[in-house]
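Escalated from tier 1: (2S)-2-hydroxybutanedioic acid holo job.
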Amino acid sequence: MKLGTMLLMVLALSASSMVQAADEIVIKFSHVVAPDTPKGRAAEKFKQLVEERTKGKVKVEVYPNSQLYKDREEMEALQLGAVQMLAPSLSKFRPMGAPEFELFDLPYIFPNYETVHRVMDGDVGKHMFAKLETKGLHGLAFWDNGFKQMSANKPLHTVADFKGLKMRIQSSKVLDAQMKALGANPQVMAFSEVYTALQQGVVDGTENPPDNLYTQKMHEVQKHLTVSDHGFLGYAVIVNKKFWEGLPADIRATLEQAMKEATAFERSIAKAENDEALNKVRAAKTTEVYILPNEERAKWRAALLPVHKEFESSIGKDLIQMSYAIAAQVQKEKVAAK
Ligand code: LMR
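Tier 2 regenerated the structure:
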């Protein structure tokens, strides 16, 4: 979107919220994925809880599928106050001046959801949200999507299979390094453009959890998918700090409670929705699904682990070490529980 068009949209949207402002608070919640995804469904859940509990005093308007803004534009729109709430993927925070969030992109750092949740809900997540405050943003919650899988129009069984492939990535330096470590050629692209880019061969492949792949119909334009679980995709629900602090305290408390419940709901459905999406991809028979065997996975890991070291200074060595320690603790508990 051109800057002029963007400014016009901002003015139009702020004018419309001024008309409504006299008697109600409007929260425009923009996101880029389909409504029937964990993020899309949780946004609707939040809307329903908020509107019920504030008896219509707060109206939440959810705009899915990049309907209002694409990835980078929605960040700008939040800072300008044209929308009030977003849930961008954790891979999209570096341009906001918060490279720490790229911890979540480090390949093979999280062996399971338990580790991810402890990292999100503990000191690491708190540190990241504190950083957002310095950027005029306020973090409300961390949401799941799931573990990412690789797809392309050729089989991706070994690291060598990536050589020279153009792979779409989100705007994360870690993801850029990850694809380069595999020998691929990473291309940053907005989520809304990926289907067409795959269809037209602008890029050869991509990575995403199955549910994003399926709901964007990428399986129709990708012949091969490798279940590699090589990385995690999650979200931070964020608001404009000035907007948030300007809300009446009782409304803020109601919104916080609704967000807590929407978050529990989101996390409770994310894994099952991804499992189901993978089954739907299989059933569509347009994409061959390959489960990466353990020996090969070890080789992918070996190729990708140097990326952790490369980003120690921009992400923070302490945050990386804390995540390793949490993963080890979760593993220890799992063994003890057997
Ligand atoms: C992507 O751009 O691939 C994802 O971040 C989209 C999303 O929000 O899940």
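Residues 15-21 have pLDDT under 50 and may be disordered.
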